[in-house]
């Protein structure tokens, strides 16, 4: 029997299936790896919005992590929504011995429209406790602006911001480009690698309301490709293309802000 590639997401549950751990697990399956999840929170919501939420008890989060540690061979993992300072501290303490391989941190600090998701104390806890553990971070445009204290008005400012973030602890940085402005033609991301190499990567901007789970999908696709043995650069490029195709090839689910298409195939452009 083959040793199947195993990966993990530590994230919140999104009841409509469009984002959070559900989007991660769909991505893992689409990318051909076996995905597991540790739930940190749960939201009640649909395509119109989020209407209720709850945070998992720290003891329950630890129990989930310990059960994964005790049984499975996880090659790479990611974190998503960690809700509050106590949750962040709990997760950081549980993973500090790096039991799950390469760590991709999706900060989940600010939405793609600029709304803050974490209180300031939790924001600082994330930086202090999880950033030094991360192999890769994937902040969106607004998260990178806040983290680097920069407007990111030019390529030069984005490059400078990536170097600032790298000095905060994460080894590799992927700053995702602006994609909430219908006047743009491309979404251009910047990647700074641990060895100092860097590159830009872009795909055409797609005007659609079906973009829920985009950041989750990108980061979990990176996890999947790393776990399968790809270099980080190749993993990022594959993840970017997969996410773009999932956005472009829209599915009709939900009445307002819908999910992207995890059923998309690699050969679809």
UniProtKB/TrEMBL annotation:
<dbReference type="GO" id="GO:0005829">
    <property type="term" value="C:cytosol"/>
</dbReference>
<protein>
    <recommendedName>
        <fullName>Hydroxymethylpyrimidine/phosphomethylpyrimidine kinase</fullName>
        <ecNumber>2.7.1.49</ecNumber>
        <ecNumber>2.7.4.7</ecNumber>
    </recommendedName>
</protein>
<keyword id="KW-0808">Transferase</keyword>
<keyword id="KW-0784">Thiamine biosynthesis</keyword>
<feature type="domain" description="Pyridoxamine kinase/Phosphomethylpyrimidine kinase">
    <location>
        <begin position="14"/>
        <end position="261"/>
    </location>
</feature>
<dbReference type="InterPro" id="IPR013749">
    <property type="entry name" value="PM/HMP-P_kinase-1"/>
</dbReference>
<comment type="pathway">
    <text>Cofactor biosynthesis; thiamine diphosphate biosynthesis; 4-amino-2-methyl-5-diphosphomethylpyrimidine from 5-amino-1-(5-phospho-D-ribosyl)imidazole: step 3/3.</text>
</comment>
<keyword id="KW-0547">Nucleotide-binding</keyword>
<dbReference type="GO" id="GO:0008902">
    <property type="term" value="F:hydroxymethylpyrimidine kinase activity"/>
</dbReference>
<dbReference type="Pfam" id="PF08543">
    <property type="entry name" value="Phos_pyr_kin"/>
</dbReference>
<dbReference type="InterPro" id="IPR029056">
    <property type="entry name" value="Ribokinase-like"/>
</dbReference>
<dbReference type="GO" id="GO:0008972">
    <property type="term" value="F:phosphomethylpyrimidine kinase activity"/>
</dbReference>
<dbReference type="GO" id="GO:0009228">
    <property type="term" value="P:thiamine biosynthetic process"/>
</dbReference>
<comment type="pathway">
    <text>Cofactor biosynthesis; thiamine diphosphate biosynthesis; 4-amino-2-methyl-5-diphosphomethylpyrimidine from 5-amino-1-(5-phospho-D-ribosyl)imidazole: step 2/3.</text>
</comment>
<dbReference type="GO" id="GO:0005524">
    <property type="term" value="F:ATP binding"/>
</dbReference>
<keyword id="KW-0067">ATP-binding</keyword>
<comment type="similarity">
    <text>Belongs to the ThiD family.</text>
</comment>
<keyword id="KW-0418">Kinase</keyword>
<dbReference type="InterPro" id="IPR004399">
    <property type="entry name" value="HMP/HMP-P_kinase_dom"/>
</dbReference>
